[in-house]
Design a protein that fits this description.
Structural class: alpha/beta
Oligomer: single chain
CATH class of the largest domain: Alpha Beta
Strand order of the largest sheet: 4-10-9-8-7-5-6
CATH superfamily of the largest domain: Type I PLP-dependent aspartate aminotransferase-like (Major domain)
Helix content: 40-55%
Radius of gyration: 22 Å
Shape: globular
Strand content: 15-25%
Bound molecules: pyridoxal-5'-phosphate
Number of domains: 2
CATH topology of the largest domain: Aspartate Aminotransferase, domain 2
CATH architecture of the largest domain: 3-Layer(aba) Sandwich
Amino acid sequence: MPTNSLHSLDVAHHIHPVTNLRRHERQGPIVIDRGEGIYVYDDEGRQYIEAMAGLWSVGVGFGEPRLVEAAAKQLSKLPYYHVFSHKAHAPSTLLAAKLTELAPAGLTHVFFTNSGAEANDSVIKFVWYYNNALGRTEKKKFISREGAYHGITIAAASLTGLAGNQKGFDLPLPFARHATRPHHYRNALPGESEEAFADRLAQEIEDLILAEGPETVAAFIGEPVMGAGGVIVPPKGYWQKVQAVCCKYDVLIVADEVINGFGRLGTMFGCEALGIEPDILVCSKQITSSYQPLAAILMKDSIYQPIADQSEKLGMLGHGYTTGAHPVATAVALENLAIIEERGLVARAAAMGEYMRASLARFADHPLVGEVRGMGLIAAVELVADKATKARFDSVGKVGLKLFDRAHNHGLIVRAIGDSIAFCPPMIITEAEIDEMLRRFAATLDEVEAWVKAGMPDA
Ligand SMILES: Cc1ncc(COP(=O)(O)O)c(C=O)c1O
């Protein structure tokens, strides 16, 4: 029940995303008031370890004064300008150049949007525009994966492969296809090795391209390591095999690095860690540590050139957002990337990731834990009803939700993805803080185990 006026105003007027709205009316919000390092504090002074870095995004942690100063400086100099019709401003131009320097080789041209979903929507439009420019007017379908998350705008949500983001919205649109989620624990056949699983999934994608007709398939999009679909690390060799298939049929590879980018996997981009050579790369979140809304699309010159020709033929590239390439957001991004480089946060994420995953591995023996998985500084613990058979709980998500709820009482914010519990802390986290985060998790897990054993009362 709402407890103060802010809580009741919120319930009365504020529609929350990814929320059961009736449940929200009953229980009210947790109002987060301030943040410092890996911690956030609610309006009643309670401290939480933000084990998800907000939404997989606050890489440099909360309360970083350099980002506040960068924003203030830019706000006082030029708080807003656009980049339509040949206008430019220094922060967005410098950021575009910086991104091409940091990104995998060959990604030389950059377009900015406000969010990851807008970026993926823009990718779809750019790829359609590109194929139209080349006279390949049928080559428009995208292959994504079950469990993928690419955002929630109409087209991006069609690429997303999670029923929860499509049910009730008349989605997906027909240009999108979904291949099997590359999750060995859940989707491999009995006795199937990682290599054989990767072979089978690559073959499935080839069969899908052939069934649809290669002349109709434009691109394959994927997160190097899936985030919102449950932190799914693909089987060894998967990306190389998928890439070979796509190359064979002139299907572009789009790497969605909205979560993976800027150090999360212990490399600047996930493509490096997974051996992907993308034609297009999408990034956001840790680009500004989410202090400002910003996303970027990077593309190869071979994609840019036909698009540029087409813009001349049609008179302009008729695409853009009022606040895309925002000067304050791009100035904050430049400072954020400088901090990541100066403080060696990519190498730090690799080292802390190893420590976090080794520490999490100890939970593998817990009666409720089916799988512990992850890469770099991102991981998940999947809870199951039966360890031996990997059987899920009768009502998937109920136990995960209980753990998510109870964790707040232990000063911990995690994310429940069905019955998988995700960890993606700020990249500044220390070993001692990881120990404390997992101490709070252990206490919550034991409490949830007792609740499961008691028959899940009041679920
Ligand atoms: C991989 C990936 N792509 C795209 C998005 C969408 O980004 P946004 O919420 O900024 O639209 C997300 C958001 O979590 C994501 O994880």
